TrEMBL record:
Keywords: Coiled coil, Cytoplasm, Cytoskeleton. This is Protein Shroom4. GO terms for biological process: actin filament organization. Residues 60-71 have a biased composition (Basic and acidic residues). Residues 26-71 are annotated as: Disordered. One of its GO terms (cellular component) is apical junction complex. Belongs to the shroom family. It comes from Tauraco erythrolophus. Signal peptide: none annotated. It holds the Pfam family ASD2. InterPro entries: ASD2_dom, Shroom_fam.
Amino acid sequence: GDLDKVVNLLLSLSGRLARVETALGSLGPHAPTEDKVGTGQGGTRRVSGHGTPCQSHLSHPQDAKDLKEHVGRREEAVGAMVARYLPAEHLQDYQHFVKMKSALIAEQRELEEKIKLGQEQLRCLRESL
């Protein structure tokens, strides 16, 4: 369960970061600084008023890196504990399961994004007809 949550959080953070970088890139180099970074309600940060406000504790790449490292340490600790109770072949199955689960979660998220994009494109095409 924790693996699902962490992988989804990391994917969400990387998606937010990509959207912020895209928004900043579309402003151009001559845009005023206050257009690039402003403060919205409740002390949350907005980039050019686009998208969803990012909580400051979720908007830094270093936080995502720290979280990933924490998950790695926890995975090692759980793996060591599991290794004490499982025979070698079952341990390999467990390790394969964890790797595949992470990969499948990431793939599922990517497919969901592609579906949303396709639905949006279809909606725009229908409106243009």
